[in-house]
Amino acid sequence: MKKILGLILVCLTAAGAGIEATDWPEFRGKGRLGVWDEAGIVETFPADGLPVLWRTPIKAGFSGPAVANGRVFVTDFDPIEPGEAPPTDAGVLAGALNRFSGMERAHALDEATGEVLWTHQWLTGYGALAFNWAIGPRATPTVDGDRVYVLGAMGNLVCLDVATGRVIWEKDYVEDYGADVPPWGFSGAPLVDGNLLIALVGGADDAKVVAFDKMTGTEMWRALPSTSEPGYSQPIIFTVGGVRQLIIWHPAALSSLDPATGDVYWEEPWRTNLGMSISTPVLSGRRLAVTSFYNGMLMVELDENTPTARLLWKGKSDSEINTDTIHSTVNTPIIQGDFVYGIGSFGEFRALSAATGERVWETQEVTVERARWASGLMVQHGDRVFINNDRGELIMARLSGDGFEEISRTHLIDPTSPPGNRRELETVNWTHPAYANRHIYVRNDQEIVALSAAVDGK
Fold this sequence. Notes:
4-stranded antiparallel sheet, single chain, globular, mainly beta, 2 helices
């Protein structure tokens, strides 16, 4: 009864405000576009912060939450302490248990109360990661109707029943496809397209990208040779040039595929240093951009009538310090009109000309500290952007060619993750919140929190 009342409360809150509730079923929201289109959102943050609806304890992870049909889905990693035996239902881990061994877990929570409805877990180990201080799953769950698709950092892909957490089917990228675990772990959240689930696998025999039957897990097609690692970017689909194009950004190229068959439409070769293709491709009109920590930004223009593309411009610097365009790490840029906005290698928030890549302005206000990998994750809301920086702050701002205009700033969540380099605050928060049903759902390595962004605070 409590769960039913909670769902009713969520629906009534939206209905009472005269707006349509909007879920956030995958990374960066529906379509992976990073757009929050709900009305009834606060114009400035309250002086004492956004109202907290609930807090639920969880463990380590970099994956953001997904919200759909009255439930919040999130993953984490629960380490096995020395001398502790794994749960009896944990499965078998190849090799001996060590301090990097533990349980990756998928949780379903009640959206209104934060109550854990079910948990599915599997035994894994992070010892093979080159950066094994970065503990926890990376990929946001993808929700599709009565199923949720979850990817662990070591390549465990699981299709679960939304209602019960029952395993419907599962794959192991390493065991099933001969994939090498990337240095930072598998990060590409699987993408639902019709009856397909499209995944960045990095497997042998031209299986960098694999499409599965989303209901059964049967392979439907594979594409692109794994002559480079798969990278850490998210598959995304845009309709341009009269067709739907599956955009895959990997460390060797920016590629466009037919999502129905995996056939290649076009490729723009661009080799990124240390495999750091991380940000999500963004499209505005026919301009498509990606950005990398060492290599800066690449901008192509898609043809209006055919599935082809031409290079507009790209960064000339391969330095993390002497940068020219936008050299992002985990940050995804925004293209608005004639300008591109994004956060660079040391937290510089920059505006570039979308036509030429020329720098228009720069500020350090968003990330505050000029530190390696300083970050902030942006979501567009009307004429505003919401940015959660890695200091645990949420910033509301407007962007234009004239500069950065901060509207309001508030504390969102405590940063808890080690950044791998020295920082003023010593810890960071690199997870993307979910903006759903006039609420913000955000996690760190200790808890997931639901906050109200509604005008009425409910």
